Each structure stands twice: as structure tokens, then as C-alpha cells.
Amino acid sequence: MNQQLKWYQLTVIFSLLFSLMGFSYNVWRMEITEHNSNVRTASFEMLLELAQLQQLVYAAYYDQDLKLGSPRVGWVKVGLIEDLSSLTGKPVIEQSQQLTQVWSTQWQNMPENEAAANQIIEQVDSVRAEIKTLLVSLN
Fold it and tell me: What is the radius of gyration, based on Cα positions, of the chain?
């Protein structure tokens, strides 16, 4: 009887530990999944905004259309890209901050100066490349 009680107690303790480990893993996995989902959503939104910013630069320089290539709209897009980058990772954040810097120094020259427009587009491409690297690395 005493031996049976010890086995019963060990079984209960083992079951409790096994349940706690399973629950802990499940919570951890859900947190990782939620984080990855947030990163993916922010990344996809950033890719859309980057494409729109690129189109804006092309409209301003190649089409000389300051309505479609409005610098005010560009400022909003650049700000949104930088805000969304905070949900991603450090390399994307750094490239987004660099995009803000490039935009702030080149937006005035963009409609007349090909080098300024190309510098903005190159930085857009750098942010896009970092986002793609990040998305591939998610598990």
C-alpha cells in the first residue's frame, strides 16, 4: 500500500510538471507567433508605402508632376515607414531612419535633380532589401 501511494504521488508530480512544461511551451510559442505576425504585417505595410514613395519620386522627377509627386505626401509616407519600422528589427529601423535622413536632404532637389531622385530610390531599395531579409529570417 505504501509503495502504491509513492507511485501515485510520483505520477501526479510527473503529470503536473509535464502539464506545466506543455503550457509554458504553448504560451511561448503563441508569443513568438504573435510577434512574427506583427512583424509580417508591419513589413508588408512598409513595402506598400515604399512602393508608393517610389512612385511619388518618379512622378516628381520624370513626370514633373508635383501633384502626384507632392513632397508633403512624401513626408507622410517617410514618417509612416519609420514609425512602422519600430515593429520590425534593428536593421530595418536603421535603414528607415537613413531613408528619413536622405529624404530630408534631397526632397527639395528631387523634381529637378536626377542624382537626388536616385539617392532617394536607392535608399528605398535598401529598406526594401532589409525587410525581405527580415521576412525570410522569421520562423
Answer: 25
Say which residues have a Cβ less than 8 Å from residue 61's Cβ, sequence separation at least 6: 69, 110, 111, 112, 113, 114, 117
Cα distances (angstroms) measured from residue 83 to each of 28, 31, 42, 55, 88:
26, 22, 9, 20, 10
CA distance 22 to 67: 57
Q: How many CB atoms lie within 10 A of CB 139?
A: 5
pTM: 0.84
Sign (positive or negative) of CA dihedral 79, 84, 89, 92: negative
Alpha carbons 113 and 48: distance in angstroms, whole number: 25
User: What are the pLDDT digits (tens) for 13-38?
Assistant: 988 998 999 888 989 999 999 999 99
